[in-house]
Amino acid sequence: MADFHDEAPLVRGGLKFHDITEIVSSHTEKKTPLAWYGAFSLALAGLMLLVSMIAYLFWNGTGVWGLNNPVGWGYAIVNFVFWVGIGHAGTLISAILFLFRQQWRTAINRSAEAMTIFAVICALVFPTIHVGRVWAIYWTLPVPNQMGMWPQFKSPLLWDVFAVSTYFTVSLVFWYIGLVPDIATLRDRAKTKLRRMVLGVLSMGWTGANRHWRNYEKAYLLLAALATPLVLSVHSVVSFDFAVSIVPGWHTTIFPPYFVAGAIFSGFAMVVTLLVIARKIYGVENIITTDHLEKMNIIILLTGTMVGFAYITEFFVAWYSGVQYEQYAFVNRMFGPYAWAYWTMMTCNLFFPQFFWFKKLRRNITFMFIISIFVNIGMWFERFVITVTSLHRDYLPSSWDYYTPTIVDVLTFVGTFGLFFTLFLLFLRWLPMVAVAEVKGILPEADPHFYDHEGDGHGAHHDVSVSAAKH
Amino acid sequence: MIELPVLDASPESADPTQNRFWRSISQRDGSGEFSRMNAGEFLPGASEGPLSENGSGATRRQFIQLMGASMAMAGLTACRKPVEAIVPFSHMPEDRVEGVPAQYATSMPFRGVLHPLLVSSFDGRPTKVEGNPDHPDSSGATHLFEQASILALYDPDRLGSVRHDGAVADWAAFRSFVSGLPSSTRIAVLAEPTSSMTMAVVRRQMEQRFASVRWVDYHGLVGNASARGVAAAHGRSMRMLHHLENARVILSLDADLFGSTAADPVAAAAGFAAGRDPEAMGGMNRLYMVESGTTVTGGMADHRLRLKSSEVASFAAAVAAKLGAWSGDAGVHASHAWVSSVAADLRAAGANALVVAGGQQPAGVHALAAAINESLGAVGTTVTYHDADDAANDGAADMASLMTDMKAGSVDLVLTLGVNPVYDHAAFGDVYGSVANRVHVSMHMDETASAANWVIPQAHYLEAWGDGRSRSGIPGVVQPLIAPLYADAHSDIEVVGLFATGSDLPGYDMVRATWREQVNGGFEATWRKSVHDGFAVADGWNTVRPSISAAGVSSAVAALSLGAHSGIEVVITPDPKVFDGRFANNVWLQELPEPTTKVVWDNVAMMNPATAERLGVGARLNGGKYMADTVSIEVNGASAELPVWIQPGMADDSIHVTLGYGRSIVSERAVRSTPFFDLDDYTDVYGQGAVASGVGANVAPLAASGVIVTASVSKAGEGYMVASTQDHGAIDAPHVGEEVKKRGLFRMATVAEYRANPDFVKGGEPAAIKEDWADYPTLWENAHPKDAIEITSSNYHANQWGMVIDLNTCTGCNACVVACQAENNIQVVGKSEVARGREMHWLRLDRYFVSGDGSSYDDPQMVIQPMPCQHCENAPCEQVCPVAATVHSPDGTNQMIYNRCIGTRYCANNCPFKVRRFNFFNWTKTLPASLHMASNPNVTVRSRGVMEKCSFCIQRIRGANKVANVENRDVRDGEVVTACQQVCPANAITFGDLSNPESEVSRLRQSDRRYELLAELNIKPRVSYLGRLRNPNPNLA
Q1: What Å distances lie between residue B307 and B256, B429, B566, B634, B654, CA to CA?
Q2: CATH 3.40.50.740 occupies which residues in chain B?
Q3: Among the four residues A85, B81, B536, B883, which has the most C-beta atoms within 10 Å?
Q4: Is B1031 in contact with B750 (CB distance < 8 Å)?
């Protein structure tokens, strides 16, 4: 008889409730380690770089980037799609996996959600600064104004404004609601008055009362349900920026699912990259275990293969459609001036994740770190290939050109990593990087009934049908 | 502040005894409480400030006074003090409406004749040049130099004051110098040939005043080989005019008939287009082109033969021999397959045949052409000769003897009138210094000016009175539209007039005096009419009909080499953009794509791929930019180093270079320097001195012994960046031609194919459109924005604008590109920005090479397709703009709302024609002040971060709407003329109302050659093209 409960425990090292509180909270309470300052300075330097690049851009104009006449979108849009994609993993982990009762998510959801929010902040930078007249950017918002003008609702860029801002708002609220019990824990442990006051305000008077927990669970469930369609919708809408146009290579119905899969793919790769480092440095390897990482690697393998399938489907459709523009666009991707970008993308996104078929490799921390970096690179190039190679040669050969980024393009992109890590390091320093309350809920002790096999808590207290069948 | 005593409650009388009535004792006594209360208008405390009790506060009045004064002063500081006195007209000119431009007829003197113009002036500021439609020698069209000449008026590097030995002087100093010249002064004058009657008068006066005045016609390297060849063949000097409208078969011997460097491109293109109508009686004409380079004329040819320019002479001799026009050596090409076919075709056309030789060809080839025309009986139909009373001197010989005399010291003063021999005449600079007095008249501090000791700023033709004759000899007045921008600027006739009389003569008086001589009675009326019309109703030059002189032809041909040419030839021609360098400081022309290479801001050594391979040179693409090798070209010890440009279709071992670059004009403007974070120094094309300086290389030294020379060419360097507006990133793509064909962009057929299948353009439709559109309804078809009530109820809705471009007559001459730039305030971005693909031209001419179709990869056909905004009815750009900054007008144009645009560039991405142009930087911020005056006030000057594109000249449409509205009628067909349409010499562009079935554009849309680009996308362009037809000789397949 198959044993559904034979999986390894999610938390290793025999940690008790208090151990978990201690491990996670201590990082926000102890004296700031020197290494944190080092890392933070580096990140802050990156942020300053971003700020100065944006100042330079605003002072002089969009011409400081490498854009030209056929290629109206370059690094900015590539980076935007890249960062929005990164964000998707967090929402997927916290919302969809929550609804699917995937309890392993508890170890990683907090940091993944934080990553989502910071990635979306990085993403939002780009559509804002990429316009020629940034001082009029608010015209894309439906604000009543003396001009009597609404935005143009047929434009996918406008849909983007709504989709991404909704996504950001919901993600932020979702993250904060999840944080409330843990902030209350920190508040209760706080030693200074200031800390007590700040955390007291942020924890909104949480006392751990049954009533609080009931409201909390309900709110969390509702927000998870609200965030779930957003995972699908945001990147679908982002893909509409391309798919709704008539540019060969953009005008493709496969884009929404393909973009969503790519977003999850890149997001998980980023989570793996960050957590492999963070769990080591913060000594939470017993909470974020190799099992967690392996599960994420399986998702990377799955979504990577889906993305690869989409690449091949696009080619098939280009050939099958008989549209010469479409055919040329895809031949040009493979063999044109940007073939190097295309083959980088193919190698990183389709080829490398296939190593995760091997259990040994997908449990190897070093190996998965390397693969995750490749996937990050590959997914950036995917957006580059879509955006730039489609634009640089479209309908009239007389207008074909080549796009080369400038140093400003590159440094702006580098600078967003500074922004991202500045926020991420602040998060690691001041907030619990693991959802303490939720992890406690999956400890065996949290399961009062001690169903069979001493109860690892896995799914038991929710999965009534299984437990009922067993008895 | 006005005092108001009425309200001032001072007692009427200080003496209480005078009061007959009193209210209280204290009033009667005038004391105490009453007088205190009575002292103010109001009771004590009612009107004082809070502090007035102790006497230190302001009263209500004082408060109002102070407030009033400070408000007034605050208001005044906000007012800028007006710089100019604005006074109303004491007598308002009749029909003058503020903001409505006035048009004045004038003429541009260029290459010895007047080009009749109609110039728009906004409140005294000329802004746009058009052809004079009333003039018999202009159909209202111009070429590109006339269009660009308006910018030269406002050129910020114009010389502003008289210079004497490098120091600033003034006109009075120069006048006293000239008036003090002894009559024994031996003067040499170097001037371009001119048709000005006034100049002839003052020249005669000057010759009387001084003992020795030697007047040398300076042709530069443009030369006058044609006139000399004709003179040799016929034994006398004459003007030759071609009449292409009468020609059925045309043989061009290296002559770029329609390009800007031709002597008469407007008339040639118009005449050619007239004979190009497939529906006309007699069918289409046929053009044979024999050339070494690639020209727009070669692109129009029905047959094109690649032949080195140095062998064109032998080809001409062979054709002449075949036709019996030449009995001497038939040359090395006597048995060429072309000769018999071409000769037979020419003979069949007889009087309707025409042979034309190119300006760079030696006089002997022109003599052979004249002989052939004579023997065909073409003189009188396609060629006419006129007596212009001028001499076809050999300019090179005259210059050589002058330079000898200058060196020998037998010239006391040399006067250079607008010419620049130090720059473009080899070795002139060496002898120039040996003349004691060097007077130079120029618009710039140019090469000759730097070596001269008197430099006189030359007036622009729109600043000074003048006269002359048009191409057919019709006299005309050059009427100024503006006072000289610089007080010292004087016209050539005024300078020569000063030499002639020693005192100032206003140009106006001189021109009037000359004309008074020529008019019999009623001078004032005739004069006024001539000035108004721009020309006098008078006959042109007399037609003459001299016989051919076999001996003359023989002696001219004797100077030719009729053998095969070995080695590498270099052909030095005037540049199609900056001519011989006189337009080099004109940014519109510098940034104008060369018509066949699309290169900007440079001159290049053009050669075909085989030649480049033999020389071991080439160009490679690096990040979308051409990085070319450079070659060193050596001719008789002189050398020039130029970047290589690989141009398919040129003759093997022939290298073409153009004049006019490598200028060094001294600018007085400060070099713009900015802090490190500010790119204004980069975006300011005027920021680093005169724009012409440092662009390209001067090839004039190579031409010391002629313009078609044998040279030794070797690789000199590599990595020179050449900017081109086309083919960024496509040099290595031989499949491009295949793509153009597959996409049905340029559709062409031979006449025979067209007769067999009049719907050949439909065959060019890409596959998708062959299905029925009814199966694929448009997304918004049921609620299409064009049916919205606010569209259909608009008064503009009655007109639906559309354009038809005839690829059969468009030569790709570039005039429309400059006209569009002048009309629409299109900014110039400089070489490096063009190389980055950021040129701003609203109208571009796409050039494609066609191989297959009977032409090979080595010998492709070249076609050119004008590409304005197509004004799609289902415009892809409009749907994607998030802020509705690009929308459709009720009259069917696609409009850009600049102040609504936030610059997402999404519209440009989604434009399948890529006609949208983005302001990556603020191009107008750094413009020198004088250039602001060149702007068309009816067109918004765009700022940084907004998109722009062709508007169908919406300002002209709205102008016509206004007039029609005032006159309470519909807009007439032909009333709205776009700038590109107006300038087009070939009338290839037709614009009009599609909702009017009678309009010309509606008629042309019925043509079976009509097609729309990318129609399968269902974007419904409002611009249609008429397919190109070729008329090849069946015997010369």
Answers
A1: 14, 35, 12, 22, 9
A2: 158-222+393-475+482-524
A3: A85
A4: yes
B876/A325 touch (CB, cutoff 8 Å), yes or no: no
- Residue B391, both tokens: 């001499």
> What residue in B sits closest to A329 (Cα-Cα)?
B739
Spell out which residues of chain B touch residue A126, defining contact as CB-CB under 8 Å: none
Adjacent-strand bridge partners of B894: B888
Cβ-defined contact of B879 to A149 (cutoff 8 Å): no
Distance CA B955, CA B326 (A): 57
Main-chain dihedrals φ then ψ at residue A32, nearest 5 degrees: -60, 125
What is the interface pTM, i.e. ipTM, of the complex? Answer: 0.90
Residues of A in contact with B743 (CB under 8 A): 324-325, 395-397
Under a CB-based contact definition with an 8 Å cutoff, are residues A341 and A385 in contact?
yes
Residue contact A61–B745, C-beta within 8 A: no
More confident site: B63 or B41: B63
Most confident of the following: A19-23, A210-214, B2-6, B521-525: A210-214
CA distance A239 to A233: 10
Euclidean distance between CA atoms B841 and B916, whole angstroms: 9
Nearest by CB to A73, which of B677, B678, B909? B909
Which residues does chain B have within 8 Å of residue A70's beta carbon, measured at their own beta carbons? 837, 914
Structure tokens at A344: 């980088």
A54 near B CB under 8 A: no
Q: Give CA–CA dist B644/A299, Å, rounded.
A: 55
Cross-sheet strand order for the sheet of B1023-1026? B989-993, B801-806, B1023-1026, B1010-1011
Question: The domain B225-387: what is its CATH number?
Answer: 3.40.228.10
Q: Which of B839, B905, B913 sits opposite A72 (nearest CB)?
A: B905
Lowest-pLDDT choice from A12-16, A229-233, A376-380: A12-16
CA-based nearest distance A431→chain B, Å: 38
Q: How far apart are CA B669 and CA A429, in angstroms?
A: 58
Task: Using CA coordinates, name the residue in chain A closest to B903.
Answer: A132
Q: How far is B943 from chain A (nearest CA, A)?
A: 10
- pLDDT exceeds 60 at position A188: yes
pLDDT score of A103: 79
Q: How far is CA A21 from the centre of its chain?
A: 26
The Cα–Cα gap between B569 and B805 comes to 38
Across the interface, whether the CB atoms of A132 and B912 are under 8 A apart is answered no
> What is the distance between the alpha carbons of residues A134 and A149, in angstroms, rounded to a whole number?
18
Region B566-724: CATH code: 2.40.40.20
- Domain B158-222+393-475+482-524 fold is Rossmann fold (3.40.50)
Output the CA angle A248-A251-A254, nearest 5 degrees.
125
CATH 2.40.40.20 in chain B, residues? Answer: 566-724
Q: Domains of chain A (ranges plus CATH)?
A: 17-442 (1.20.1630.10)
CB–CB of A87/A379 below 8 Å?
no
* B946/A132 CB distance under 8 A: yes
On whether the CB atoms of residues B1019 and B999 are closer than 8 A, the answer is: no
pTM to 2 decimal places: 0.87
Q: Any alpha helices (H) in B323-460, and if so which ranges? A: 337-349, 363-376, 395-408, 421-424, 428-432, 447-451
- The reply to whether CATH 3.30.70.20 applies to domain B736-1028 is yes
Q: Which residue of A62, A69, A403 is the best one to mutate when testing the B interface, meaning the one whose CB has the most B CBs within 10 A?
A: A69
